[in-house]
Amino acid sequence: MGAFEFQALDASGRTQKGVLQGDTARAVRQVLRERGLTPVAVTEVAGETQAAAPGLRLGRRGLSASQKAILTRQFATLIRAGLPLDEALTALAEQSDGETMRRQLISIRSRMMEGQTLANSLAGFPESFDGVYCAAVAAGESSGKLSEVLEQLADYGERQASFAQKLGTALVYPVLLLTLALGVTAALLGYVVPKVMEVFTDMEAELPLPTRILLGLADAIEQWGAVGLGALVVAAVLATVALKRPAIRARWDRFLLGLPVIGRMLTMVESARLARTLAIATSAAVPVLEALKLSSRVLSNTALKTAVEAAALRVREGASLSGALKETGRFPQLLVRLIASGEKSGELPRMVAHAADLNERQVQDRLATAVALIEPLMILAMGAVVLFIVLAILLPIFNLNQILGVAP
């Protein structure tokens, strides 16, 4: 029995949407007719491999990190309480607020009722449940510790969502401040300054250097501002398209890692992500080689992802995990040493999790320090720009007598 998303009309002609279970689309249409609805479209809910029908949004949009963390926590609680998997999935689907989550849960339950495992059912929606998640669930099913694994996955998801939120929050104020500064400066140069300076441009006297510079900038913005803005938009689009090419993206990622401050920050962020994923995978009894391969998928920097893939090859050849990562020369020594300690003591999941905590804390501290330095620097820069504009306007006024004296 599968899950089908439907779109139908009621007796008053209003559109009704939802998800029903049935053996075939024809059976679902019959159920809709028995409910007094006129079927318009009925399509089986599926993952990315299934084509979507026109007018219907199937399971292609994934769950956010916070949604997945909450769902996993609730799922673990229901399993720990002794509910069978199908009943737990039904309860989660009934209480879910999002339509995407409800459709996916119903489809996952339908796949399980057809005889598939929970991990395989989740794998049908890779946009919501990645390889690490599915591998951990598979390990939990085989070991009989599914609730414990789900608890660990929930902790992992909550940390991931919290970490991303802290990064975003720390960057909001500087970005807004920079946008405001650029917008105010452009408005002054494009509209205010030309009106104020019109009185001086008609005079055939030599204006002070700051005033001439300001008038030149204002004239350039007035004549070429729209063209420049359009060029920036086109450049951004072309850069986005170019970065989708693997070779260009690889060179760009290597360039970012080579930057003095940004490169180190990116490495620490990616290292924390790698360590956290390794911790959740190894604690779920996923083999180290498979855990390393899965962990490489969560990295966004292709240079570091290639380094992890190379480390996986070395591990498959018999090298230790710490030794393979050290050979890449891409990851912090602290991470490598903690992994080596975990391998020697037999507590690799705990030590990798500890390394992830340390990396995340270092990133947050460095980001907070950077933001604390950027804010006053940006305020000083804004003050300098405003001071220059004010001086450029006031200097001709202070020299008005001299300008009038030489003017015809």
Q: Tally the helices: what do you get?
A: 16
* Average predicted local confidence, pLDDT: 80
CATH T-level topology of the largest domain: Receptor-associated Protein
* Corresponding CATH architecture of the largest domain: Up-down Bundle
Largest sheet: 3 strands, antiparallel
Instruction: Give, in order, the helices and strands.
Output: EEHEHHHHHHHHHHHHHHH
Weakly predicted, low-confidence segments: 47-59
Biggest sheet, spatial arrangement of strands: 2-1-3
Question: Termini separation (Å)?
Answer: 94 Å
Strand content: 5-15%
**Proportion of residues in helical segments:** over 70%
Q: Tell me the number of strands.
A: 3
Q: Label the overall shape.
A: flat
CATH homologous group name of the largest domain: Type II secretion system (T2SS), domain F
Rg from alpha-carbon coordinates: 30 Å
The secondary structure category is: mainly alpha
Total number of domains? 3
* CATH classification, class level of the largest domain: Mainly Alpha
Q: What's the short story on this structure?
A:
By secondary structure, the chain is mainly alpha-helical. The chain has helices at 25-34, 65-80, 85-95, 99-113, 118-123, 131-143, 146-201, 209-242, 246-258, 262-283, 288-296, 302-316, 321-328, 333-345, 348-398, 400-406; strands spanning 2-9, 15-22, 38-44.
How does this model look, in words?
By secondary structure, the protein is mainly alpha-helical. The protein folds into three domains: 2-44; 65-158, Type II secretion system (T2SS), domain F (Receptor-associated Protein); 165-408, Type II secretion system (T2SS), domain F (Receptor-associated Protein). The chain is built from 16 helices and three strands. It has helices at 25-34, 65-80, 85-95, 99-113, 118-123, 131-143, 146-201, 209-242, 246-258, 262-283, 288-296, 302-316, 321-328, 333-345, 348-398, 400-406, and strands at 2-9, 15-22, 38-44. A three-stranded antiparallel β-sheet has the order 2-1-3. A hairpin with a 5-residue loop joins strand 1 and strand 2 (15-22). It is flat. Residues 47-59 have low confidence and may be disordered.
